[in-house]
User: Fold Pyridoxal 5'-phosphate synthase glutaminase subunit from Candida theae.
Amino acid sequence: MTIAKPVTLGVLALQGAFREHINYFKSVIQQNEERYLNYSINIIAVRTKEELDQCDSLVIPGGESSSMSYIAERTNLLPHLYDFVSNESKSIWGTCAGLIFLAREIENAVENQTCLGGLDIQVSRNAFGRQVDSFEQKLDFSDFIPGCDSFPTVFIRAPVVTKILSNGEGSNGFTEHKVVRSKNTHVNRAPVEVLYKLHNYDGKENELIVAVRQGRILGTSFHPELSDDNRFHQWFIDEFVL
Assistant:
């Protein structure tokens, strides 16, 4: 008799769309029982160090990145999140605000905002404009997700990756140009891989980086948890969690 391997996937539940992520992961597992027969995958909400310590993987949801960082600092979860992103055995996915929180540098940051430094990138907050400028668009992710050629993405006050940094580049502090740099000194030695560039979204000839991967850490500008499609969540489980 095969004993199912226990795996705990946590969703940071300080603020934002954490319930949607939890529901999507549960739907993936329910729809693919035979696929995951050798695993016992537990999905939990994470608000405390004790809950974080249970996790093999963590998802940081969309929401408000500055509020997320303030709550993490106020509840003393922030140093444990630094430890988690620095742990080479853990995998992480940040969506929208989660991408901002995972970055090494934040452009247009709010004063005293913090970031975890897990991804060697600089991101720009609210790069597409205000809430009224939010949009949906079907994108072709089949280059890295097999068969995912028409995925309905949702961009809500979304960030973009404005710069790929050298491993560990950046320093502490808040600059006069409102670029916050992570206090995390851990160096992720994997290269940053650009997974997707958004082309001509506003009719202009531009290429905006909206999905990146650096080893075990994934970041997306958009909200897969708000689309009517769980393929991105299944890919994260298959590619990063198991």
